[in-house]
Amino acid sequence: MMKAFVLLVACLASLANSSGILRASDIEPISTTDACPEPFESIGKQCLLVDNFTKGTYQGMKQFCEMFHGRVVKIANAEALRAISDYIYNNKLTTVSLWIGATDEFAEGTWKWEDGTHVLMGTPFWANYGCNNDQSPDGGTSQNCAVLDKDLHFYFNDVKCDSDAGVICEVL
Predict the structure, then answer these.
(1) How far is CA 69 from the centre of its chain?
(2) Could you give the CA distance from residue 24 to residue 38 in angstroms, rounded to a whole number?
(3) How far is the C-alpha of 14 from the C-alpha of 39, rounded, in Å?
(4) For 50, which DSSP code?
(5) d(CA 40, CA 125)
(6) Cα torsion angle, 158, 100, 66, 57, sign
(7) CA distance 86 to 162
């Protein structure tokens, strides 16, 4: 499909050129994604900032994202989780866990994103661990914020909100 489109553009450019000769300068580059504002970049279908250098508590990193006119990321589907995970591994950003915008601070066991929508539970989002293959979240009232956990292959895990972690921000 894309080759046919490029060929069509080339033919139209040739027709527009009075000499009938197609020059490289006659063809505009084709953008497949909209540009993300600095310092965000396109990851999957989102404009994200993955910061594994700056670390802080959930509230501190939430404010960090707000400084860039963003919020802590919402990972709404498996496709988004896969794109983010691929980005983390491909760029060797595997040394620190990363805050995501999920919390059950306001109602224990009811996990919500920053925008108020419910977090999908279970596989493939939440980490499995231990001999009994237990699944997060299981931290009770002491672990109310979620990270992509470096020790659990960057699946969701519930941790204390005052833990130190990097962050993934998304454009609002």
Answers:
(1) 16
(2) 29
(3) 38
(4) E
(5) 23
(6) positive
(7) 27
pLDDT under 50 in the chain at which residues?
1-32
What is the end-to-end Cα distance of the chain in Å, rounded? 32
Which of 113, 96, 102 lies closest to 165 in space, CA to CA?
96
Question: What pLDDT, in 10s, does the model give residues 139-159?
Answer: 778 799 999 999 999 999 999
Reduce the DSSP state of residue 157 to 3 states and report it: strand
Token output for 151: 């020790």
What is the token pair recorded at 82?
Answer: 């896969």
* Chain centre distance of CA 38: 15
Of 75, 80, 79, 82, the residue nearest 101 (C-alpha): 75
Please check whether residue 55 is in contact with residue 164, taking contact to mean a CB–CB distance below 8 angstroms. yes
Distance separating alpha carbons of residues 96 and 154, to the nearest angstrom: 10
Q: Is 81 in contact with 44 (CB distance < 8 Å)?
A: no
Whole-number pLDDT of residue 130: 67
Asked if 105 and 144 touch (Cβ cutoff 8 Å), the reply is: yes
- 114 is written with which tokens? 């920053």
Query: Can you list the alpha helix ranges (DSSP code H) found in 36-158?
Result: 58-67, 78-90
Q: How far is CA 129 from CA 1, 9, 29, 57, 112, in A?
A: 44, 53, 47, 24, 22
Nearest CA to 128 among 162, 152, 105? 152
